[in-house]
Write a structure and sequence with these properties.
By secondary structure, the chain is mainly alpha-helical. The protein is built from nine helices and four strands.
Length: 183
């Protein structure tokens, strides 16, 4: 039985968008924003925890990836994102970072932080040690399947990560892009 798709509406303004890739301080930023008074911060962890979110984010990611170099901003409205983040006043990590330019258009009054790691090779090592094992672990995939999660979540995550890397200007010659092709 499929999960119901999220259908939240905006209950508070989206004030802050941290549009950096995973493993670039996103969890620390999440905790800092909470300490500074943000009531709810959406982080990549929420995709796995919230029923139906992976499906909607995945569809948005596939649509963005299909448009590649010239996204149709009219397809990515605040309402598109509010379905998942409507009760949040800040966002960090992917999948939100995947949609940086279109989210900036959708939420023009929000402030944004572009957090990144300056040592690209250290970032790639960090991804390989943390996120890659989550995507290639049979035990984890079995756990996800047995918990009745949508089996497309892994493919959607990969699509979102590839899209996010390209949105941040990574080229095929970059170590990060070479890594992204592996997943």
């Amino acid at each position: 039985m499929p999960y119901p798709e999220p259908n939240q509406t905006r209950t508070r303004p989206l004030e802050i968008m941290c549009l950096g890739l995973s493993r670039s301080g996103t969890e620390s930023l999440n905790k800092a924003l909470e300490l500074l008074g943000c009531e709810k911060v959406y982080h990549g962890f929420h995709v796995a925890e919230a029923r139906g979110h992976a499906i909607v984010w995945g569809r948005l990611g596939f649509a963005k990836e299909a448009q590649h170099e010239s996204p149709d901003f009219s397809l990515f409205t605040a309402r598109s994102f509010d379905r998942m983040i409507g009760d949040c006043d800040a966002v960090t990590d992917i999948p939100c970072a995947t949609f940086g330019p279109v989210m900036l258009q959708a939420y023009p009054d929000a402030k944004f932080i572009l957090n990144r790691r300056t040592d690209e090779e250290a970032w790639v090592r960090s991804i390989r040690q943390t996120l890659l094992p989550m995507q290639t672990s049979w035990a984890l995939l079995a756990h996800v399947f047995l918990r009745r999660r949508d089996v497309l979540a892994s493919k959607m995550f990969r699509c979102l990560l590839r899209t996010c890397l390209s949105a941040h200007g990574w080229t095929p010659d970059d170590a990060g892009s070479k890594f992204a092709k592996q997943i």
